[in-house]
Amino acid sequence: xxATLERLRELRQQAGTVAPPAPNAVRVRPCDAVAVDAVRAxxxxxxxxxxxxxxxxxRLRLPRPAPTPPSxxxxxxxxxxxxEAGLHYVEQLTPWRDVPATIDASFGKLGTFARGQxxxxxxxxxxxAGGTGTRAFMIGAADWQPEGLRLRQLTITTLTAEAxxxxxxxxxxxxxxxxxxxxxxxxxxxxxNTRYRLARLPSPLPGRPHLDLLHPSRRRWKGxxxxxxxxxxxxxxxxxxxxxxxxxxxxPRAWLDYLRGGSARDLRRVADHNAQDLRxxxxxxxxxxx
Length: 290
Description:
The strands form two sheets. Strands 1-2-7-6-5-8-9 form a seven-stranded mixed sheet, with helices on both faces. A two-stranded antiparallel sheet has the order 3-4. The longest helix has 25 residues, at 265-289. By secondary structure, the chain is an alpha+beta fold. A hairpin with a 2-residue loop joins strand 1 and strand 2 (87-95). Helix 7 (230-238) packs across helix 9 (265-289) and helix 8 runs antiparallel to helix 9 (265-289). It is elongated and about 105 Å long. It is built from nine helices and nine strands.
């Protein structure tokens, strides 16, 4: 046994992991031997089979992660005025000519309304499946003013600002407001009702006339194109071709990236997408009414 330990010690000395004993050093008995606390990197001249015998391994050198470009890390600008902590408000006016004073909504099985009663609305959410785990992080609305179509958007940049956003949106609805949406009856309105309920706020949506343009669009154009999505209808009927448009499916990722400290570039593209949805809603409503 002692001869084997002596041979192992010689091999470790050859590998450069243990210093040779001093001339007057007291030799340690095999039963008192302890493990070496620190092991230096093996010398290159030591054969591979010796290193394996001694239990030595080459150190792994992992590449460092690439740093985030400063231009992206610092791009945190969210459009609009911060009207409350974490809640941003944007308002813009789109000039519009030849808008009739009244809108005949018989195509949607409703009556005739003054144009000022219509509130076109659309949400951008954290998911497309709905349910209590999905929330709206942006609410856009458009209504008719004497100068044209007024667009208003509310965007939250913190989770705690959701209740403030819901309160501000409720303030945009008058007693005679008529809701206009695209698939809003099945998605946007139920989702907002859930968020109002979870925030312990009264929802302003139930009981109002709701003109959902998806259903009359399907009755008129189903089977003519591959689908009746808003993007398809606006391209085929209104001649709208979007450029650099961020798909709605990318909206949850854009908002979550911003919350995690990422760039606001795609969040601004979500706002542009939402504004175009509102303009297309208004144009489609006028087209169906005439």
